[in-house]
Amino acid sequence: MSATDIVIICIYCLTLPFIAFALSGRQDSVATYVGGGHDLPWWVICLSLVATETSTLTIISIPGIAYGSGMVFVGLAVGYVIGRALVAWLFLPHYFSGHGGSVYQYLGQRFGHTMERTVSATFLIMRVLAEGIRLFAGMLPVAAILASLHVPLPQWGIMVGIVGLTLCYTMAGGLRAVVWSDAIQLAIYIGGTAACVGLLYHHATDMQIHLLRHSNRFHLFHKSRQYFLDPYTPCAAMIGGAIMAMASHGTDQLMVQRVLAARNLRDARKALVGSGIMVGCLFALLSLVGMLLWARNDERSLAAMGLRTSDALFPDFIVHDVPMGLAGLLIAGLLSATMGSLSATLNAMTSATLLDFSTPCRALARRAGLSGLAFARLVTVVWSAVLVLAALAFARSHGPAVVFGLSVASCAYGAMLGAFLYAMFSRRARTREVLPSFIATLVTVCCVMVFGPPYGATIAFTWLVPLGVIMMFACGLMLRIVLNVRQ
Question: Taking a C-beta distance cutoff of 8 angstroms, is the pair 456, 231 a contact?
Fold first, then answer.
């Protein structure tokens, strides 16, 4: 790591908060802080969506997965585009007609406040776990760089530094600062990844390029008969991936909050579908990094290279083999990915807390003598501390972090998507059957993941969401029959 790289990283860390704050404008109310004023351009929202869902987990994990399996994550993105298109045309009209700041307020209007708060609490717990994994993954390359410079710092210290920097612009500029900073951060790590692809291709020999072209690594799907164990078969990727995208972009406040900040329904649809296409392109770019590294290393296994996990592949290449200047840009990109997803999560968790638990929050604000905006910023600080503690809890995790992160989120997504489908398409559904079904489904799917093999349970992570939806409707139907018989 050269002085030039360190200067690049320092410039990024010092200038981003000021740029984000300047673009965000004045924050004079809670509605502006968590809603962004509902007048953001669709293309900025599109970039923000991509930056939010493609965290450091994505950047460090996908090259490692592509090293062994090729372009399979691009196949998964096909399902993502299908799922977002369904959300854009089926879900968004319901959300825009309600004009709510929290997507869970829609469930409150349909099934009452108890259902709204139960699902919102599920979102908050799920986000703490998933973002904790992301934060820990984002800390690892920074720790490796500091160790190479003989400046060892404790993991908690690095995390506090990343969170503190992110808090600066998240608290000052609210959702508008988050969205604009996401766009800047996405440009940084896409540019760094593209430069890395160009560098690897330029230094590859003719024999290595020939080896790569005639390998089977450009296939988007696995040809496997283990339909429910392999997440990269055509059915698992397209059907499971589509349903997962419907859950993540149709029921997760982290994503829906950005879409609702658009000027109108048409712009929201363009941002949502466009983000799916951009994610596919980013997956392809990151997969090319892994595939080119596979050719560069002459098909050697990760173990033969002295790497314990596939997640160590890309960070190891950045630290030891990237030329001066580009290494700094790539590290800044990794920091961008971590800070982008972190700022988005903090703002989304704050909005869900304030809007779905408005009565106790107002009481606490009055007791503390704080204005609504000051209390909102305090809530953001509290959630940041919780995320640091959650990240430290994952310090001993193993395996591809991106798969683990998707598995954790998928445990809640099935029950959440089932609840929203009930609200939208079942007029006969009542709280007395939907709420118990939601809780039973959530517990069951979590048990499937926790007590099975790691990172996907006894089934692939892409099938966890469909499993949850099916269980949700099965439980609801049985409860309706039982309750009707008792009457």
Answer: yes
Q: Output phi, psi for 369, to 5 deg.
A: 70, 30
Per-residue pLDDT reduced to its tens digit, 6-36: 788 888 877 877 777 776 666 666 777 776 6
Residue 308 burial by CB count (10 A; 0-12/13-18/19+): exposed, middle or buried? exposed
What residues are paired with 40 via a beta bridge?
A: 262
Q: 364 vs 66, 359, 379, 382, 407, CA distance in Å? A: 49, 9, 11, 14, 35
**CA gap 304, 398 in Å, rounded:** 18
Q: How far apart are CA 110 and CA 433, in angstroms?
A: 13
Could you identify the residue written with the tokens 């107002």?
362
Q: What does the CA dihedral 333, 338, 339, 345 come to, rounded to 10 degrees?
A: 150
Q: How far apart are CA 164 and CA 169, in angstroms?
A: 10
Round to whole Å and give the CA distance between 350 and 195: 36
Closest CA to 387 of 39, 165, 134: 134
3-state secondary structure of 262: strand
Task: Give the DSSP per-residue string, 324-376.
Answer: TTHHHHHHHHHHHHHHHHHHHHHHHHHHHHHHHTHHHHHHHHHHHT--HHHHH
3-state secondary structure of 40: strand
Q: Give the H/E segment covering residue 60.
A: helix 56-69
| Tens of pLDDT, residues 73-132 | 888 899 999 999 999 999 999 888 765 667 898 888 889 999 999 999 999 998 888 888
Q: Which residue has the tokens 């993941």?
A: 449
CA–CA separation, 458 and 342 (whole Å): 30
**Backbone phi, psi, residue 40, to 5°:** -80, 145
- Closest residue by Cα to residue 334 from 272, 380, 401, 385: 401
| Amino acid present at 289 | V
Within a 13 Å sphere around the CA of 323, how many CA atoms are in the beta-carbon half?
6
pTM, two decimals, is 0.84
Amino acid letter, residue 216: N
